[in-house]
Design a protein that fits this description.
The complex is a heterodimer of chains A (152) and B (129). With 152 residues, chain A is of the alpha+beta class. Helix content of chain A is 42%, strand content 27%. The chains are: A alpha+beta (152), B alpha/beta (129).
C-alpha cells in the first residue's frame, strides 16, 4: 500500500513533468503563499486496470485553457477554437500523468490498461472519489490544480 | 534527405503536439500527415508517401498493432518504420511491441531531443538496410 505522503509527492512530480514538458507551463506543488482565489472548475477522469486498478482525476481552472491549448497545439485564432480543444488537451494531460504515475508507483514490470480519459464536472469527480483518495495540489500557471488518485 | 512523417493518434491535440515537436527537432522534414486511427492511416498511405510512422496503440476502429500487421501485408509498406508513441511504461509491453516489428518507442511526455533521437536511430537503420 502506498503511503499517502509518498503518493502525493509522486503525483506532483509526474504532473510537473507532464505540464512542463508537453505544455511548457510553470507548475509546482501548492504552497501556502500561492493565490487561492483562482479555484478549480473543470476536470477530467480516467480509470486503469491490470496489475492494479483505480481512478485518477484532474481538476483545473478554466483560466488555464488558453495557455494549455496554445502551448500544446499552437496558436488558436478564436476563443471557440480554444474551447473546442480544451477538453481534449485536458484529457491528454491527464492521460500522460496517469501513465507516468503508474510506472513511478509500480515500476516498469507492471502492465496496465488505461481507459480513455473523459471530461467531467467537478461534481462528478467528487462523487467518483471518496475520502481514501490521495489528493495532490499544484500551482499551475498561478491557478490551483488538483490530481486525485484512488488505488484499489 | 527530408522525411515525410505520418502521425496516427485518435487525439487531435496529441497529433498537433507531435507535429509541432517534430518541427522543433531540427530534423529535415518534408510533409507531416495525420490520421485519427489505423484505418485512416492506411487511406493516407494509399495517396501519400511516408518515410516513417508515429502511432499510438490504443485507438478506435483500428489500433496501432493492427495497423502494423496491415502494413506488413503490403509489399510497398512492409519495411515502413513504425514508432509507437504512448504513455505506457511497461517494459514487457515495450519488448512485445518491438518483437512485433515496431522500430522505436517514445514515451509521453516527450521532448524535441527525444523525438530527434528516435528518428535518427530508426531512419539511420532504415537508410542502411
Amino acid at each position: 500500500m502506498l503511503k499517502t505522503s509518498n503518493a502525493a509527492d509522486t503525483i506532483c512530480e509526474a504532473a510537473v513533468r507532464v505540464f512542463e514538458t508537453s505544455a511548457f507551463m510553470s507548475v509546482w506543488p501548492w504552497q501556502s503563499t500561492d493565490d487561492a482565489t483562482v479555484v478549480c472548475d473543470s476536470g477530467a477522469t480516467m480509470t486503469f486496470s491490470g496489475s492494479h486498478s483505480g481512478r485518477i482525476s484532474l481538476k483545473v481552472s478554466h483560466e488555464i485553457f488558453p495557455t494549455l491549448v496554445q502551448n500544446m497545439v499552437g496558436e488558436c485564432e478564436t476563443a471557440d477554437e480554444i474551447r473546442a480543444r480544451a477538453a481534449d488537451a485536458l484529457c491528454e494531460a491527464l492521460n500522460m500523468i496517469c501513465g507516468n504515475l503508474l510506472t513511478d508507483w509500480y515500476g516498469e514490470q507492471a502492465i496496465f490498461d488505461l481507459q480513455p480519459p473523459r471530461p467531467v464536472t467537478l461534481e462528478e469527480i467528487n462523487a467518483l472519489h471518496d475520502a481514501t483518495s490521495v489528493c495532490a495540489v499544484l500551482c499551475l500557471e498561478n491557478t490551483r490544480a488538483e490530481v486525485l488518485a484512488e488505488l484499489n | 534527405m527530408s522525411y515525410n512523417i505520418l502521425i496516427v493518434d485518435d487525439s487531435a491535440v496529441t497529433r498537433e503536439v507531435l507535429s509541432r515537436t517534430l518541427r522543433m527537432t531540427g530534423v529535415d522534414l518534408g510533409d507531416i500527415y495525420q490520421a485519427a486511427n489505423g484505418a485512416e492511416a492506411l487511406k493516407v498511405l494509399e495517396e501519400k508517401w511516408a518515410d516513417l510512422v508515429f502511432t499510438d496503440i490504443n485507438m478506435p476502429i483500428m489500433d496501432g498493432l493492427r495497423l502494423l500487421e496491415e502494413l506488413r501485408k503490403r509489399e510497398e509498406w512492409s519495411s515502413l518504420p513504425v514508432v509507437v508513441v504512448s504513455t505506457e511504461g511497461s517494459k514487457s509491453r515495450i519488448d512485445e511491441l518491438k518483437s512485433s516489428g515496431v522500430k522505436g518507442y517514445v514515451r509521453k511526455p516527450f521532448t524535441p531531443e527525444q523525438i530527434a533521437e528516435v528518428i535518427q536511430s530508426v531512419m539511420g537503420e532504415a537508410d542502411h538496410a
